[in-house]
Amino acid sequence: MTTDEHAERFTLLRPLLFTIVYEVLGSATESDDVLQDSYLRWADVDLTTVRDTKSYLAQLVTRQALNALRASARRREDYIGPWLPEPLLLDEHDPSTDVVLAESVSMAMLVLLETLTPDERATFVLREVFGFDYDDIAAAVGKSVATVRQVAHRARKHVQARRRRFTPADAAKTAQITEQFMTAAATGDLEGLLSLLAPDATWTADSGGKTTAARRPVVGAAKVAAVVLNILRVGRLADLRTELVNCNNTPTMVIYSGDHVEGVFLVEIIEGMITSIYAIRNPDKLVAVAVPRRISR
């Protein structure tokens, strides 16, 4: 078998493999590193021994993702302030017709997955999102099939218990409310912001200590509105502009100061009101916003 065939098989499945790793790690940058390392391992594999390329590569990248997740555990413990997943800028490929995939890459779901153990997270992603059988998952996480079944059950119960009870707004409604939020924020319209925020709305900001941001979640519509207006107040940022893009399959507000990305705001909308705002302001996590990705399952 030639190196070209290794590359062809890997490239064909790369969107799927990237999505698996991203959902396990919550970082597009780290996912790229894992895929690069995985490909080097794949290039040495005798393809005559591979019966199912998709299963083989899914197992390979999952093992590497788990290694990376465990290695980063200490860094996350020492992280300053809340840790949020890295926003994922999506290209013209629209996963919204695939409801399971769309929800699985949402910021709300990724934040929820952060509460699982590494094995629970990988098992949940492979089983519930991608539909792999327990034999494949057992090989990926290095556990027996019986153990993986127990892990899957535990992870599923954990996610169901913490998942929002109400159905999130559809894409068109989300886009409309996000645009209204963006306009109100950019123009300093306090009343406009308050009309869009649920009474118990939450603001969670990830700065990693590298820029000014609240180090604990801010709760309550009035407090959240004040935080938003403080960030965008006139004169604070030079050449301020905003742009609406698709991150994690939701309309997302990107804040620029000149050509520099200052932050990415993703909103969660339930029953027509903004219930959560995830603000990524750590410059290390904003690099990936310049690179559109394609996801698949």
What does this molecule look like?
The protein has helices at 3-25, 28-42, 53-71, 73-77, 99-104, 107-113, 118-129, 134-141, 145-162, 171-187, 190-196, 221-232, 283-286; strands at 197-206, 218-219, 240-247, 250-257, 260-270, 273-280. β3 (240-247) and β4 (250-257) form a beta hairpin. It is globular. The model has no long low-confidence stretch (mean pLDDT 90). It has 297 residues and is of the alpha+beta class. The chain has a six-stranded mixed sheet.
What string, H for helix and E for strand, traces the elements in order? HHHHHHHHHHHEEHEEEEH
The helical percent reads 40-55%
Average pLDDT taken over every residue: 90
Oligomer: single chain
The SS-based structural class is: alpha+beta
